[in-house]
Automatic annotation (TrEMBL):
Name of this protein: MinD-like ATPase involved in chromosome partitioning or flagellar assembly
This protein's UniProt keywords: ATP-binding, Nucleotide-binding
Gene3D superfamilies: P-loop containing nucleotide triphosphate hydrolases (3.40.50.300)
Keyword check for Nucleotide-binding: yes
Lineage: Bacteria, Bacillati, Actinomycetota, Actinomycetes, Micrococcales
Keyword check for Hydrolase: no
Domain of life: Bacteria
Length: 429
C-alpha cells in the first residue's frame, strides 16, 4: 500500500449511472475529494488547467477525447484515469496515453487508480502505451539546421533517395504526381519515408513536383491524435513517389502549423518505424519552446513538430551553409541543439553545404573544416560542394539528382552522407 495522499478528482464520465457510481465510490474514500463533475471535455480541460484537480477520471468515449487532450491533462499535472467502455477497443484506449485504464464498474480498481496505488494485476486493466523506443524496427533521421536556407530540404530529399538506393535510371510512380511512370523499386533497396515537418516553409511537395494536395503528415497526425493510426492508415497517407520512397507531405500554409502537434507526431514517428526502414524528417529551423505558452498547456507549440522529430531521432543531420554567416549560425545552432527544450540524445552528423571558394576563400573545404573545428568543436564535418547546375536542374524538373544529374558532385556527397548514416544506425530491417 502506498502512503495516503490528498487527491482531488475531476470526473467527466459519460454514462449517468457510471458517473453516479464513480462519484459515490470515490466520495466515500478518505482523503479523496470529488471536486467537480464535468459534462464536456472543454470544461474538464478548463478545470484541469485552472488547477482544480490532481486526478481526472474520464470516459474513454468522451466526445473529443484524444491523445492531445490526454497530454494536456497530464501537462496540467493530472493523473489521467480512463474508464473503459466495453465497446471501445483496448488498442484505442492504449493509444490515448492515459496513466491507467480501468474497466467500467470496477470500483476497487477505480479507487486504486485514483489513489495511484497501481492496478490489481488480476484486473482487466489496459496498460498505458510503452514509451517511445520500445519497438524500433525502423530508424528516424531528423534533418535540422539553423535559419537562412542552408539546404535542409535538399539534404533530406537527397538523403532519402540515397538511402532508398534510387538509381540514375530510376523513374517514378503514382498518384500525387503530375508526371507518373510506374516502375518497381530497385531490388534490395530499403524503404524510406520522407516526412516534411517544417512548420515555417514546407517545400518537399513542390521540390518533388507533387500536387499541392492534402498534407499527408497532418492527416497522419490527426489519425494518431484520435487513436486510429495503424500502419495501413499511415501508408495511405504516404504515397510512393520514387522507387522505395514514400512521402508524408507538409502543411500547405505556414498558418496550419497547429495541425502538427508534438503529442500526435510522437505517435506518427513511432508508426513510421513500422512502415519504413528509414524515416527522414525535414525539420523547421527554430528550436525554442515558447515558455509563456508552456504554462498554457492547451496551446500547441509552433516548433513542436521539429522538437518531436529531434527527440525521436536516432541520427540528427545538422546542416549549415558554407559561408561566413552560415558557419557562424551553424556553430550557434549546435549550441542551441544541446540546450533544446527536449532531450536530443541522437548522434549528430554535421553537414556543411554549398562549399565554394567564392564564399570562404581558396582551399574552401580546408577553410570550412578549420573554422568548424576551431569554433564549433566539430572535427568530422561532412562537406557537400556547391553544385548550382545539378540542384537547379533538379529544382526545375521536380526530380532528385539521381534522376536528372546523376554525375553531380553534390549527389556523390549525399550518397556518402547516406553511408555515414548507415554506419551510425545499421540498416534496421
Ligand atoms: N549543394 C548545393 N549546391 C547548389 N545549390 C544548392 C545546394 N544545396 C541547396 N541548394 C539550393 O539552395 C536553395 C535552398 O535549399 P533548401 O530549400 O534545401 O534549403 P532549406 O534549408 O530547406 O531552406 P528553407 O529555409 O526554405 O526550408 C535551393 O534553391 C537549393 O536548390
Ligand atoms: Mg526547407
Amino acid at each position: 500500500m502506498s502512503e495516503e495522499r490528498n487527491v482531488t478528482v475531476l470526473v467527466a464520465v459519460q454514462a449517468p449511472e457510471e458517473e453516479a457510481a464513480a462519484v459515490t465510490v470515490l466520495g466515500a474514500q478518505s482523503q479523496v475529494t470529488v471536486a467537480r463533475r464535468l459534462a464536456e471535455l472543454t470544461e474538464l480541460l478548463a478545470a484541469a488547467e485552472a488547477g482544480a484537480g490532481t486526478v481526472a477520471v474520464v470516459s474513454g468515449d468522451l466526445p473529443g477525447l484524444d491523445r492531445d487532450a490526454v497530454a494536456r491533462l497530464r501537462g496540467a499535472g493530472l493523473r489521467v484515469v480512463v474508464v473503459q467502455d466495453a465497446a471501445l477497443s483496448a488498442a484505442r484506449l492504449a493509444w490515448l496515453g492515459a496513466d491507467v485504464v480501468v474497466a467500467g464498474g470496477d470500483a476497487e480498481n477505480l479507487v486504486a487508480a485514483v489513489r495511484g496505488d497501481g492496478p490489481d494485476p488480476a484486473a482487466p486493466v489496459v496498460p498505458a502505451p510503452a514509451d517511445r523506443g520500445s519497438d524500433r524496427p525502423g530508424a528516424i533521421v531528423a534533418v535540422w539546421g539553423p535559419a537562412g536556407s542552408p539546404g535542409r530540404t535538399t539534404t533530406a530529399i537527397e538523403l532519402a533517395a540515397a538511402l532508398a538506393g534510387v538509381g540514375a535510371a530510376a523513374p517514378r510512380r503514382t498518384g500525387l504526381l503530375r508526371r507518373s511512370r510506374p516502375v518497381p523499386p530497385p531490388h534490395g533497396s530499403s524503404t524510406v519515408l520522407l516526412a516534411d515537418a517544417d512548420t515555417y516553409a514546407s517545400s518537399v511537395t513542390s521540390r518533388l513536383g507533387l500536387l499541392d494536395d492534402a498534407p499527408g503528415l497532418a492527416a497522419a497526425a490527426r489519425a494518431a491524435g484520435q487513436g486510429n493510426l495503424d500502419v495501413v492508415t499511415l501508408a495511405g497517407h504516404s504515397p510512393v513517389v520514387l522507387p522505395g520512397v514514400r512521402v508524408l507531405t507538409g502543411i500547405t500554409r505556414a498558418s496550419r502549423w497547429p495541425e502538427l502537434p508534438a503529442s500526435s507526431l510522437d505517435l506518427v514517428f513511432q508508426r513510421c518505424r513500422e512502415l519504413a526502414a528509414w524515416t527522414v524528417v525535414d525539420c523547421g529551423p527554430v528550436l525554442e519552446a515558447d515558455e509563456l505558452l508552456m504554462y498554457d498547456t492547451r496551446a500547441p507549440q509552433r516548433n513542436g513538430a521539429t522538437l518531436s522529430a529531434l527527440q525521436a531521432a536516432d541520427v540528427v543531420v545538422v546542416v549549415g551553409a558554407a559561408d561566413p554567416v552560415g558557419l557562424q549560425r551553424l556553430v550557434r545552432g549546435l549550441e542551441d541543439l544541446r540546450d533544446a527544450a527536449v532531450p536530443v540524445p541522437a548522434a549528430r552528423v554535421v553537414v556543411v553545404n554549398r562549399v565554394r571558394a567564392a564564399a570562404v576563400g581558396r582551399r574552401a573545404e580546408a577553410q570550412v573544416r578549420d573554422a568548424l573545428a576551431r569554433y564549433g568543436g566539430v572535427g568530422d564535418a561532412h562537406v557537400v560542394p556547391d553544385d548550382p547546375a545539378g540542384l537547379d536542374a533538379a529544382l526545375l524538373a521536380g526530380r532528385v539528382l539521381a534522376e536528372c544529374a546523376p554525375a553531380s558532385p553534390a549527389r556523390a556527397a549525399f550518397e556518402a552522407l547516406a553511408d555515414r548514416v548507415r554506419e551510425l544506425v545499421p540498416a534496421p530491417v
